[in-house]
Amino acid sequence: MVSKNQKKLINSLHQKKYRKQHHLFIAEGIKVINEFIDAGFVLHRLFTTEDHLFSVDNTQCYEVTEAELKQLSQLKTPQKALALFEIPKEKDENYNGLVLALDDVSDPGNLGTIIRLCDWFGVTELICSKQTVDCYNPKVVQATMGSLSRVNIRYLDLKQFLEEQQHSHTIYGTFMDGDPIYTASKSCVKSIIVMGNEANGISPTIEQLVTHKIAIPRFGQLQLTESLNVATATSIVLNEFRRADFTTET
Amino acid sequence: MVSKNQKKLINSLHQKKYRKQHHLFIAEGIKVINEFIDAGFVLHRLFTTEDHLFSVDNTQCYEVTEAELKQLSQLKTPQKALALFEIPKEKDENYNGLVLALDDVSDPGNLGTIIRLCDWFGVTELICSKQTVDCYNPKVVQATMGSLSRVNIRYLDLKQFLEEQQHSHTIYGTFMDGDPIYTASKSCVKSIIVMGNEANGISPTIEQLVTHKIAIPRFGQLQLTESLNVATATSIVLNEFRRADFTTET
Q: In chain A, how many domains are there?
């Protein structure tokens, strides 16, 4: 049974200001929820049609019917469980390796995919500009497929962050007129890669702080494709940085 | 002014069977529509609030109000123009280069992104299994951002297609236990790359026809990411095949 207040709380968490106020976010689906539990996230409430699939404290677990879950869920096909987790405190920063920074990425699906890519490529530090979509937005949480539990994400004034790092770090950014990424020098030590907004790319203010402009070459006869989606561009860029290490080591 | 019959026709084109029956598909937005016109697609009807932006025959062009366009459009923010184009006849096949084949990709956004990637990486031949989402689905058309006009897409019995090509072509497929793509031999001549379904990957029947299994290496300490999204995996794979040519040539 789900109370009116619980429904109201869950509904409010689709908005960033209430997530911030309650320090809670929504995760849906057995696999995703269990990944957050395993990663040490603090469970606040669990609503599920299959409570035997979770090893959690009874006081936190509400058995619900499929109809009730459907009312709570924003997914087209509800995933047997919806949980509220506490938004964790930020971990200590470690910028010694490869850091990814996002300059106003606005689409939740793109941010979710990028977080999953960070997890895949072992990038644990993700810096988001203040205008980047909130990583605890339910659509982002679902798109990360659990990777959100393994990547440290910080929302900072990106200009200020890069100004602080520019003397110790190399700052890369993708531009159409950059050096071809295949042959450009790339390092995974004290390096920051900036990826830009879907429509506008990297903003002029941030561009001034980029020390190494790189480009993903385009192929074929016509070369009319205007740009790559920011998530697919990120996958190519992270792959290029990591492959250098891989091919050196083996 | 939009007639009731025109509204009905446009609405019906959201379903594959009516697109097939009428040989028409929907494209929205000034840029996308002009790319189809420039690429030689046959315009059937254009509904726009800004007819001065198009150089098309008056008999095909209907000036509409924003309110009318909103009724026709499936986009959250209608894009000033909606057009119906004829679905073109298939061009002659040319499988001598790098061919991409999709084994039941089901998400329209993923197929759209993959078509855009083919365009970027100069892959003009895309083979889709019969179960792959229709490339003239309006969501796919929008996600391709005009790239659909530059990639030849064929829906075939994928098993039969690969059986026909297996004696002359190398057939690559991505699997978790494949050879690392960085060091695996890769050729862009008479090569087919198979990418699998979002949930199930490459099906067992198709797997048997793959001659070269490749894998995208995973990095970091935990390596718990289960898989990459099929569109981001495709971007990495196409980049890896093309970069070999690029770095050899330069």
A: 2
